[in-house]
Write a structure and sequence with these properties.
alpha/beta, inorganic pyrophosphatase (n-terminal core), Helicase, Ruva Protein, domain 3, Diaminopimelate Epimerase, Chain A, domain 1, 3 domains, five-stranded parallel β-sheet, 44% helix
Amino acid sequence: MSIKPNQKKFLADLDNAVDNFIDNSNNYYNNIIAITHNDADGISSLKIVQNLLYKMNLEQDFFIYNRSSSWAAYLKGILPKSHDRKNAFIFTDIGSSLTELIPIISSRKEDFYILDHHEVEDKVDLDDLPQNLFFVNPTIHGYDGLDHIAGATLAYMFAKRIKPTIIKQGWLTVIGIAGDSLRSMDKLKSFNKDVYEEIVNEEIIHDKEGLILFGAMNDNVKNGLKNSILPFVKDYGGENDLKIKSLLSELDIDPNKKIIDLNPAEINSLLNKTHISKGNYAIIPQNQGLLQYAFEHALLLNILSFKNISSALSIIQQKSITRDAQGIYSEYINTLSSNLKILSKELPHIETKKAIFIDAGNGKIPPSNWSDTASFSTVNELLNPNKMLFLGGLEKKTQMMKLSIRCSRIYLNSHEGNGVNNVISKIKDNFGGMGGGHKLAGGLRLSIPSYNKLKENVDNLL
């Protein structure tokens, strides 16, 4: 059962970590090693931390963790053989795998800072953490890691307390928020909302109201209806141009008109004919083209993170998109909208009383799209929102079943807040595997025999 948010305790943890970091930066630390997750929220968090360290004149290194290996295996090549007190580690948006990390941290002399917004495993004793671990996670104080605070929001709050001028990098925070919340900006809550409004008030980000077709806000209305992934426009998403042009001709709307240029009458016509809605979106004024739009920028980072992490790290610092990146984005967004249509209308579903299993390993949906297809199908409620979704297939590289697990807020409300993260913990306890996540979303790798046992026993775990 969820607990009431306790802002005082959360901010006390944050301030304690900030105070310790400031004190030791002056007296001990020479080099900081930052470790983050390979997605838009993680990369945005990393860049915020890197800007902070630059302002503090601290030497720094960074690493990107993709959760494909255990922490012990991953950190073996990163942790220096000598326990040098002059080093410190900052983890951002990495999933609070404390059962794996605590034994490692306990054996070291360096300080570790974990700034995270993922749910913590139930079996972790938070009152008995190592003294060299400064753990800041709002979910242990009742906050939701998706609705209330993104990883980049937490990194921003940490960095700004140390260097107030970090507010100038607030646009990075908005990219993280847009990529993780999967909401229009007018629906943000708690710290995400507070930080967003602060950044807008400083005119670092521009807040705009209009038709919401996330994934294609930079495009024309024809492509917007076809390629929007939030919302996925029923009857038009992933469809051919002829069908969409017919609708627009009926409404007397130029199919090549930019979404942001639609007038109120045209917007109202589309609202009456489709399942679209109005809302607020964020513009990054110093950028051009696709990179102006926070949601689309975040989506591009997510795409590149799984294809070429160096490109993702490069594109976040650019003001305009390269031709190659534009091509990758266009191909991806076309594929994803098509995937959502395929998932909702073509792929066979194995349904139990409480779960839906979809084998996407048949080639119809590329593995790189499994996570986003699962996320956006759930957000758009393309399947039964009262059941948990397990979408995935065999991963050739590891010969394990890779699963993207999702549930809706409707599911959470009917299960006393016990979501994906709790289920993943139970699966690991019963069948092994590696993974973690939020209440609404997570990932898991399982052996094939364990996956078969999961399908047989899933209703007992939910």
